[in-house]
Amino acid sequence: MESAGSGAFDGGGGGAPAGVPARLPAVNDPASPSPVPGSRVSAGGPVAPEAVLPWVRSAVEAGRVLILTVRSLRSGSHLTYRLRPFKRGPSDRGAGHLEMVDVLTGPANTADYTFIGAIYFSPRGSITVLTGARTENPNGGHGSSISDDAPSAKTLRGLFERLARGQGPAPAAEVWHDGTCARCGRPLTTPESLERGIGPICAQKGGSEDGEG
Ligand SMILES: [Zn+2]
Q1: Contact indicator for 115, 145 with CB cutoff of 8 Å
Q2: What is the secondary structure of 132-189 as a DSSP string?
Q3: Maximal C-alpha separation, the chain
Q4: What is the model's pTM?
Q5: How far is the CA of 211 from the centre of ligand 1 (A)?
Q6: 213 C-alpha vs ligand 1 centroid, how far in Å?
Q7: Cβ-count burial of 84 within 10 angstroms (0-12 exposed, 13-18 middle, 19+ buried)?
Q8: Which of 6, 40, 114, 169 has CA 20 to 30 A from 133's CA?
Q9: How does pLDDT run across 67-124, given as a tens digit for each residue?
Q10: Distance from the CA of 149 to the center of ligand 1, in angstroms?
């Protein structure tokens, strides 16, 4: 079901942001800077390029669910990903962090996520991202139903390859963190809503209904 992944690029014409390689195996990050948790992360705009990796690492190391949106400056479309820590046994302590990754594939931004891949943060600082059928689910399940070639899979791999090298997002891409609607408190994931601080429904009529974007 490749369409599930590509569909998130609504009105697309997009594909992955410029400079995103089609495929990437393991990559290393020998010069990982020490993270300054929460620093330089602004609420009303994209995360500063150099702050993306420290922000991601701090969430991963704290075991928090992380929601990030990647926006293509060329097409204006965006993709929202959710990283959730894979639970391990006590004997796995010190073995790094394994994150299961979902991509938002529907209008309900708390529910409509589809499993897309996995990212492994090793104790030595390297980052490995797998998508598609190659994704080995540690639970013994199968890989993602979203193909390796789907824009959402390419974008995910491209972003984390750059981060692993100590680079920011591609020049034609921005990373946004999620927020909540100032009126109703529901999650916001689209750059437009995040910039405004209010979801589309509340922005229109000041009410508080379901399904903010
Ligand atoms: Zn709202």
Answers
A1: yes
A2: GGG---TTS----SS-TTSHHHHHHHHHHHHHHTT--S-TTEEEEE-EE-TTT--EE-
A3: 53
A4: 0.73
A5: 8
A6: 9
A7: middle
A8: 169
A9: 999 999 999 999 999 999 987 766 666 789 999 999 999 988 888 999 999 999 999 9
A10: 35
Domain boundaries of the chain, sorted by first residue? 45-177
Which of 12 and 180 is assigned the larger pLDDT? 180
Is pLDDT at 209 greater than 80 in this prediction?
no
Determine the distance separating the centroid of ligand 1 and the alpha carbon of 184, expressed in angstroms: 4
Question: What per-residue confidence (pLDDT) applies to 93?
Answer: 66
Beta-bridge partners for 30: none
Q: Which of 2-6, 55-59, 133-137, 139-143 is the least confident region?
A: 2-6
185: tokens are: 């408190």
Residue reference for tokens 């090793």? 122
Distance 208 CA to ligand 1 centre (A): 5
CA 182 to ligand 1 centroid distance, Å: 7
Query: Distance from the CA of 139 to the center of ligand 1, in angstroms?
Result: 37
More confident residue, 45 or 177: 177
Gap between the Cα atoms of 201 and 50, Å rounded = 33
212 alpha carbon to ligand 1 midpoint, in Å?
Answer: 6
Residue 110 CA to ligand 1 center (angstroms) comes to 14
Section 154-164 average pLDDT: 96
